[in-house]
Amino acid sequence: MTVASTAEATTTGTWNIDATHSSAQFKVKHMMISNVKGEFNAVTGTLTVNSADITKSRVAASIDAGTINTRDAQRDGHLKSADFLHVEKFPALTFQSTRVTKREDGELAVEGDLSVRGVTRKVVFEVEGPSAPMKDPWGNTRIGLSATTRINRKDFGLTWNTALETGGLLVGDEVTITLDVQLIKA
Question: What CATH number is given for 3-185 in this structure?
Answer without folding.
Answer: 2.40.128.110
